[in-house]
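The data are quoted verbatim for completeness:
=====
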Amino acid sequence: MARPRNNPGDLAELPTELRTDRPKGDQIREILETLTRSLSAGTVLPSERVLAERFGVARMTVRQEVDRVVAEGLASRRPGGGTFVTEPRPARMLASSFSQDMRARGITPGAKVLEHRVGTADEALAAELQEPVGTPVLHLVRLRTADGEPMAIERTALSLRRYPGLEELDLGEVSLYDSLSSRWGVTLGMVSASIVAAPPDPADSEILGIDATVPCLIITSAPRTASGEVIEFGRSVYRSDRYDITVAYRAT
């Protein structure tokens, strides 16, 4: 178990000097990464001034490396309160549902329904779902949480021709994929997804409780059943500061 560190000025566990044969920035980043992984979440890290003085480098050099560690999700800044170690980021396998993956890691998944409406598929959506134009569709937007922490906003559309009665379920209380499996016999197969890094729009950043400058993972996906039928078509926004996406593939 990581040992709490209450004194940010205590650098006894850190090297006393940097090597001369490697870039100083790289060494400082590695030191910070090692430190964050050895300490408990919420522990304050040594200040940029303290680190700069210890290693004889400019504060700007230290600040750049702290920025990198924050971007990796290993630490976070609190205005006026320094830099702290964060909770380890849960990682999701794309070839699994959010709920299934979180439970497999001992994390409690949650969902809050932000939008739940029935419409019809226009030409573009019908093509993505591989359904006729005008097919009844459930449009669903949910805030996904892990142990109560906001993690993602999932926007998706599902064919009600394939899953009649899906619109009657409370998908804030039950797992979508558990329901698809138990009621319609759906088995998740291949997942086709596009993943890009981009800042969230203002509305999404407010829902996720993050600054609008924090990068997010924008995932557009069309999961299929084991038999190749499209299950849903969606676009989701995941916090990259608290979330990893793992992609499994077979080399050929």
User: Anything to note?
Assistant: Residues 24-38 form the longest helix (15 residues).
